[in-house]
Every structure is written in C-alpha cells, then in structure tokens.
Amino acid sequence: DLLGGNMSFREGDDSSNPNPNPLMDVAAGDAARGGAAVPGGDFIDMGAPAQQEEVVFATDEERRMAALKDKYAKANEKKKVWDEVDQRWKNVEDDEKVQESAAPKAKIVGIKLDGPIDTTGKDAATVRAMQDRQRDMVERQAAAKAQLQAQVDAKKAEESNEVELRARLDGRLKEWSEEYGKKKNIRALLAGMDQIMWEGSNWKPVSMGDLLVNGAVKKKTMLAKMKTHPDRTSKLPHEARFIAKRVFDALNQAYDEYIEQGGQ
User: Fold this and answer.
1) pLDDT in tens, 128-156
2) Residue 195 pLDDT exceeds 70
3) Taking the model in full, what pTM does it have?
C-alpha cells in the first residue's frame, strides 16, 4: 500500500527492474509523458506547454475591425480623472502636457525706444552702437506708423469715392445690363459694351450681326472678360475698376445662362 492507495506488481518485476523503488518508476513514467521528477521521488506535473491560439479571420474587414478594437482597448487603458471644471473625464497624460505648455516662459527684454539707455558697465563703442540701434528703431517705427496711416486714409477715401461712383454710374450700368427689369442676354451685352466702357479701354464695338456667326459669342466673350478681369484692371483708376468689375460680373452671369441653354 503506497501513498494511501493499492498498487500491485507482477511476479518477476523485482528481478528485471534495476530500481526497486516503485515510486521512482511512477515518476520516471510520468516524466516521459511531460512531467518532471524531483529529488526524493516527488513528482510535479508541469503539463503541456501553453500555446497561444492563432486567430484566423475570414475577411480583411474582420481583421481591420479586430485591429481597431485592440487599438481602442489600449487607448482606454490610460488613467483618467474627473475634471470638475469641464465636467468630463480627462486623460492624466493630456492634462500634464497642457500644464507643461502653460508653464511661464522666460521674458525677452529688448531695447527701449523711449527714455535713456542703460550704459552701466559698457564702454564708449558699445554705448554708441546702442544709441545708433535705438535711433534706427525709432525711425523704422515712425515710418511704419506713417505707412499704416496712409493705407487707412486711402481706404477711407476709396470708400467715399465708391459711394460717389455708385450714385453716378449705377444708372448707366443698369441700362446696359437690364431691359424692362430683366437681365439682357450675352449678345445684347457684347453689342452694347462700347457705350459703357471707360475712356482709354480701347474696346472695339461689336455688331449684333457679327455675334450671329457660329463661335463668335464665345470668342468675343473671352476677349471682353480678359479686358475687364480684376487682375488686369487692378492698377487702373478707381472709376475704371468700378466699371470693369460690374461688366465682368454681368458677362459671367449672362454667358453661363447662354451655355446652359445650349449655346456655343
């Protein structure tokens, strides 16, 4: 009776077995099946080595969804804290980054433009260089202010001039682009452009008969749009730019309608 159990042996086993200890025979047999024997005859069953089961995906979509699930699972492992101000959960790492970026930075001190220069401990050459630098910066600042003021004044003058031009030219432009409250077609606009263009535009008059030729509408429209395009009129006087912009917009709208109606 071994280890509280019954174990029997056939006759002849003692003579053929070089190890008369039955417990060692049991350990040796189990070791051959994946166990391990330890000194003293005790046996520890280690079991079969663990193997990770390989996941097989039927489609690429399943593989992609599994990768996304694993990604979000790792993202959710971040430590979160409840923000009483924002009333939401925040990542601890993100909060630390915000605090680092909000840390005060070293203040840069430049040369003062008003008041005397601190010349303590500086030689004469350095003092002269500092004074020249201060004088140059003051002049640059004054020039920049004057330029900015000039731009502001020019914009105000242009806005005032725009009101005057609108009151003076709106009637003529409306007469050219509309008839009985309806927008004129592209042929009518091209035929009447010589009556509305600014002085010195060098636009040659176009007759309605010329525009009945196949392809003439497209050709004359392209020439008129090139003449009145904002990029080509940006350096002209304000009145010329005002007329060019209104003509360009009217031509674009009328030509789009012409194409939609099957014109060529």
Assistant:
1) 888 888 889 889 999 999 999 999 998 89
2) yes
3) 0.47
Strands 43-44 and 36-37: antiparallel
Query: What is the rounded CA–CA span in Å between residue 76 and residue 91?
Result: 9
Half-sphere exposure of 200 (CA within 13 A, CB side): 6
Q: Which of 19, 43, 40, 22 is nearest to 32 (CA)?
A: 43
Q: Are residues 240 and 201 in contact, defined by beta-carbon separation less than 8 angstroms?
A: yes
Say how far apart CA 51 and CA 203 lie, in whole Å: 87
The residues, ordered by sequence, that sit 6+ positions from 232 with a Cβ below 8 Å of its Cβ are 226
Structural Rg of the chain based on CA atoms: 47
97's CB contacts (< 8 A; 6+ apart) are none
Return left, alpha or beta for 260; rule: phi > 0 is left, psi -120 to 50 is alpha, else beta.
alpha
